[in-house]
Specification:
The chain is 7% helix and 41% strand. The chain has 414 residues and is mainly beta. The N and C termini lie far apart (118 Å).
Length: 414
């Protein structure tokens, strides 16, 4: 063994002399040696001045971290994402610029009266009536930034029909263009309206009305004929109709009131449905929302896929069904069918004995009104999961009973 020179200090126990880990005599027996970083060691392993990692005590070489691999799939996805985002960003910037510089323009037109008026536009429509009008007065309302974006106006007469069109062009004009109509008509006009994106408001027409909007609310009142109204996305409200009414919204509340004929259907794909004061029969349906029907002179069919159903004051038969919600029927003079898949079902009698069929898959039964298996009027009450009740009337009926209807006053509730 050689003797260390004065310039070479003797390493202390547990201190590496050549970069390798040296067992610490103070460590517990059998423990692994701990490698320590050397001061000033900044060069990458494998360089010309570094012969590579030192072997450990057993002679094995420590693993060298792998360099990051090139992944072409990730690059392709990144490029595709950028390419897809660019048109959206450009479109948003374009629309923002257009709306910052656009203005409203109004032009007046006069058209010859025809028995049938058809209005087609991309924006809102407002119709008013002038009993003394001998012509059709039209105000074309347009919003755009430059003249080349202006919507087109066209009026065409064919037989007994006048069609007025006020429409924007195709992309890239449409995002920065709005086209609407304000029209004054004689009252005895048959009206048809088609709006691509806007509300439709009309009143005081004596003829039939057929209205639709792809995206906008509809309000119709004091209509002398039949009404057909549909919105793809918006509230629809129809009041004071002399004829029948067919009213629907794919996404919005539906309100129908004061109908002289039948409510053929009042329907919403996503929203509450309210029907009241109907001389004839009524059908009210909501896929997702409550259904409320009140004061109907004929039969009622009210259904909800997800929401409560209430039917009150019906001169005819009443069917009230909810897949998921409570059901209430009160003051129905005809046969009653009330069912719920998940909710309580309560029927208040009309003051006469009925043939009652009542059951619940998971709930209590409560019967507090007169029943008679031989009665001509039947009441069926069902719930898969909820309480079921047949109760005495809460007050006098607001309906005129049909011929031959005999109410037993002693059965009336407080």
């Amino acid at each position: 063994m050689s003797t260390p020179t004065p310039d070479t200090p003797t390493p202390a126990a547990g201190t590496p002399s050549d970069g390798a880990a040296v067992p610490d005599e103070t460590a517990a027996p059998g423990s692994e040696p701990v490698a320590q970083d050397l001061p000033g060691e900044t060069e990458a392993q494998g360089s010309a001045s570094d012969p590579g990692p030192d072997p450990d005590e057993d002679g094995a070489t420590a693993p060298v971290p792998r360099a990051a691999r090139f992944r072409p799939a990730g690059l392709v996805l990144t490029v595709v994402g950028v390419l897809l985002a660019l048109p959206l960003v450009a479109s948003g910037a374009w629309t923002t610029i257009m709306y910052s510089v656009g203005t409203w323009h109004h032009t007046a037109h006069t058209e010859t009266v025809a028995p049938v008026i058809s209005l087609v536009t991309d924006g809102p429509v407002k119709i008013t009536v002038d009993p003394g009008a001998t012509q059709v007065s039209v105000q074309a309302d347009a919003w755009y930034a430059w003249d080349w974006q202006a919507p087109t106006y066209q009026a065409t007469s064919t037989g007994d029909r006048l069609e007025i069109r006020h429409e924007c062009g195709s992309f890239p004009v449409s995002p920065s263009c709005e086209a609407g109509l304000t029209v004054v008509l004689p009252p005895d006009t048959q009206l048809q309206v088609r709006s691509g994106n806007g509300s439709v408001v009309a009143s005081d027409l004596t003829g039939p009305v057929d209205v639709s909007s792809s995206d906008g609310r509809i309000e119709l009142s004091r209509i002398g004929g039949d009404v057909v109204a549909h919105s793809g996305n918006g509230r629809v409200e129809v009041t004071d109709v002399a004829g029948s009414a067919t009213v629907s919204s794919s996404d919005g509340k539906v309100v129908v009131s004061g109908v002289g004929g039948d409510v053929i259907t009042a329907r919403s794909g996503n929203g509450r449905v309210e029907v009241s004061e109907v001389a004839g029969s009524a059908t009210a349906v909501s896929r997702d929302g409550a259904v409320l029907v009140n004061q109907v002179g004929g039969d009622v069919d009210a259904r909800s896929g997800n929401g409560r159903v209430e039917v009150v004051s019906v001169a005819g038969s009443a069917t009230a069904v909810s897949r998921d919600g409570a059901v209430l029927v009160e003051d129905a003079l005809g046969n009653v069918t009330a069912r719920s898949g998940n909710g309580s079902v309560t029927v208040y009698g009309a003051g006469v004995p009925v043939a009652l069929d009542i059951s619940s898959g998971n709930g209590n039964q409560r019967i507090e009104a007169a029943t008679d298996p031989a009665a001509p009027i039947s009441v069926t009450i069902r719930s898969s999961d909820g309480n079921v009740s047949y109760l005495a009337p809460r007050g006098p009926s607001r309906l005129s009973p049909p011929p031959g209807y005999q109410e037993d006053a002693s059965l009336a509730g407080p």
